[in-house]
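Q: Could you predict the 3D structure of DBR1 enzyme?
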Amino acid sequence: MKVAVAGCCHGALDKMYETLELLQRRHNVRPDLLLCCGDFQAVRNEADLRCMAVPAKYRHMQTFYRYYSGEKKAPVLTVFIGGNHEASNHLQELPYGGWVAPNIYYLGYAGVVRFRGVRIGGISGIFKSHDYRKGHFECPPYNQQTIRSAYHVRNIEVFKLKQLKRPIDIFMSHDWPRSIYHYGNKKQLLKMKSFFRQEVESNTLGSPAASELLQHLKPTYWFSAHLHVKFAAFMQHETNSKEELPKATKFLALDKCLPHRDFLQIIDVEHDPNAGDSLEYDAEWIAVLKATNSLVNVTQSSWNMPEKNGLYAKWDYSVTEEAIKEVLEELNHDLKIPCNFTLTAACYDPSKPQKNMEPVHTINPQTTEFCAQFGLTDINDRIQQAKEESSGRGECEEEEEEEMDSTGSAEEPSEYNTDNSGLSCFNPDEIMLDEEGGDEDLSTCSVDPSPDHPPEFSTSFSDIRIMPDSMAVSSDDAMDSNNEELEKSGGSKQVEEKSSTERSLKRIGGDENGNSGVKKIRRRNQAIYAAEDEDKTD
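A: Sure. Here are the predicted structure tokens for DBR1 enzyme:
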């Protein structure tokens, strides 16, 4: 079957589906499935916009609300994961996944589904070491910390995925697995995105958690987005025994969704011709959710997953064939995911804007039904209970906890060693850059989707290597996949090093004219929301 893969959509659903229809009209290419690798932006109304971690001037409604309201319907089954620019309050309603609109399915914090026999997994969000070991405690209305931490990957999701034993065909993550750039055209990547050099050379670009999953799951395909550049790689995995057949992963990072960009990729995937056309639950994944249900945590406390170190009575939560069989029997061998989408919030009305609409914490009926069916903890219901129990503690205590959380002083060391001394304590999602750099196609396996040449995934991978264990997780872990780099002026002028304390004071204090006292900080993802300006300069 044909699968279309898209990078950061940023709410431009009309544009994305129109591109697919254009492919069909001009080249008779009709994908059976569309996968989106995060920054989907399922924004329903003005309240959702307030829950998206972007500057206010970039909060645009885009076109998802038309699909949410039923005005339009996705012409192809669409499955997506979350990124770091999302309506977090909306996606939080569906921690185990669910329909955000008819024919558009969200995989949840982490999830695995099947379509026509093809096994598709994914993990939402981006990696940040200081939130990695916390529970999913955030809920709207968010503050300046939780609006960001809400989309940070948690160790429990990685732990669940690592319990899987059966092969995965396709896996999606928003940020790249760390070290994957060593298996593609790294030279060309650094030529087009020179500000990646320091992170690439120090092996700190990307997510160590995703790298860990890549080594464990060894999927046939792995798709990512986030860095707004197209890049292909090929990784030959090590075998654990002589009997194990060699496995390899084709990795592809997709560009952002902008006009005149090659932001879609079409691949042919082997499927089961006898399977139905409905999206289905994955029996092993459901069994894993049931087995790990006792590990659900909705607090800010940092904690480690069980491991074989003598401290835990149980550390292996992988499931038996008998447990999988029990799931199948519970479902009467009907794995079809019910089309039970329901509206849970008012839909945006262009004729009646409501700029002061406030977000609320909502428990989605889909999640309630899913948890009841499989005996799972409804995370949002648990959060509501925790809020009610702690309501008498007073705002002062909550503010104290938030302050400790933001500084990290109350946390134990992460399982990924971290050195954040070179990063900004002002805003870890920002990067100092003079130029964003181009968004050229760095894929060795893509073609320009011109009217006479539709995109395909017919690749000749030339750089095949075995990934040593030492490269999987760097000891120098950054708070985000994007470190900061000082601007360069004149090519040779060096910037005098200053202490992190002095740097922080200047950012906060500024001069008497209100200037910050440091060079301009640009958000790497800021360019996404300035698509119109970018197109003028292309």
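Q: Anything worth pointing out?
A: Residues 2-391 form one domain.
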